Amino acid sequence: MTDPNPKKLRIGWFSFTCCEDSTIMLTELLNEHFFAWRMHLDFVNAKVFRKSGPLEQLDVAFVEGAISSEKQTEKLKKIRESATKLVAIGSCAVSGFPSAQRNLFDETTKAEIQPILKRFAYLPKVLRVNEIVPVDAFVSGCPMNTDQFLVLMDKLFEEFGIRKNKE
Ligand code: SF4
């Protein structure tokens, strides 16, 4: 008999300094996987899909984008505390780039952008996610490689004991 209340993977999707193209890739994936995933995934925190509430306990937090301010650093630390696993999504989260381009500016250009950094309380340097918190898995690509993402999703379903129907 089918379980009417199957265990779902509780996930969060968070975007920091980036163009949010991996979010677009995720929504594209839903075109194909929505009906298979809806029984197995609970989008607990995902501003792109639902009104964002307080941060809740998550099985997996997916983080896209680089970290460029103290405020983002604090938010990322809170996300890490509330998630069993944290996954860095896309090149900006994994390596900082291309969002971290200002790290490579010459001294003159760096001096020119100081007022902007000060005005928006940006960090002196843009950071990748694992410079701030431990990361359990990485999905590379700009935007993220969707094949890698799907392989990881299957691994996560298995790891958290989510019995997935055939797609
Ligand atoms: S990795 Fe590429 S696609 Fe993803 S946020 Fe950064 S610039 Fe955008």
TrEMBL record:
Spans through the membrane: none
InterPro entries: Hydrogenase_assoc-protein, NADH_UbQ_OxRdtase-like_20kDa, NiFe_Hase_small_N_sf
Key words of the record: Oxidoreductase
One Gene Ontology molecular-function label: oxidoreductase activity
Domain (NADH:ubiquinone oxidoreductase-like 20kDa subunit) ranges: 35-151
Name recorded for this polypeptide: NADH:ubiquinone oxidoreductase-like 20kDa subunit domain-containing protein
